[in-house]
Amino acid sequence: MEELHFISCLADPDVWLRPAQKHNGTKYYEYVLIYTNDFLCISTYPKKILDSIGMHFKLKPKSIKMPEVSLGANLECFMLPDNPSKQQWSMSSTNYVKQAVANVEKDLDEIGKHLSTKIASPMSSNY
C-alpha cells in the first residue's frame, strides 16, 4: 500500500489512509480498510484506488462494486430528501444479529434447551 502513498493507521494497521483533494479543492482523507482478503475503499473516487490496488494484487472483477456487507454489517447508500445530491451511508447489524440468534437457538436445541419468548429486558433486573 505504500506504493500507492497510503500509510497504515497507528491504532489499526489494517486501516490505510492518505490525504486527498476533491475537484472543488476540498481536502479529505481516503481510506482502505483491509480484512483478510476483503478491501473496503472509502473515497470520492474509489474505483481509481481499487484499479491501482488491482495492479499489485489479483482482485475478482465482480467484487469491485458498491459495498453491501462489511465485517457482518449491512451497508446501504441512500439520499435524504432535503439533500438528494449527497450520498449518505448506513450500517445495520440486522442480518448479523439474526444469524447469531439462529446459531444460539441451534446450539440450545442440540442440548434440549430454548430461548425464552416472554422477555421484558435483554438483561435480568438484578444484573
Structure description:
With 127 residues, this protein is α+β, with helices and mostly antiparallel strands. It is 20% helix and 34% strand. It is built from 2 helices and 7 strands, in the order E-E-E-E-H-E-E-E-H. It has helices spanning 46-54, 94-110, and strands spanning 7-8, 15-21, 27-35, 38-42, 69-70, 73-80, 83-92. Strand 1 (7-8) and strand 2 (15-21) form a beta hairpin. It is elongated, with a radius of gyration of 20 Å. The model has no long low-confidence stretch (mean pLDDT 88).
Mean pLDDT: 88
Give a short account of the largest sheet: 4 strands, antiparallel
Structural class: alpha+beta
Q: What order do the SSEs take from the amino end to the carboxyl end, as H and E?
A: EEEEHEEEH
Portion in beta strands: 25-35%
Unreliable sequence segments: none
Question: Reading side by side through the largest sheet, how are the strands ordered?
Answer: 1-2-3-4
Can you count the beta strands? 7
The 3D shape can be described as elongated
Radius of gyration: 20 Å
Number of helices: 2
Amount of helix:
10-25%
Measured between the Cα atoms of the first and last residue, the distance is: 47 Å
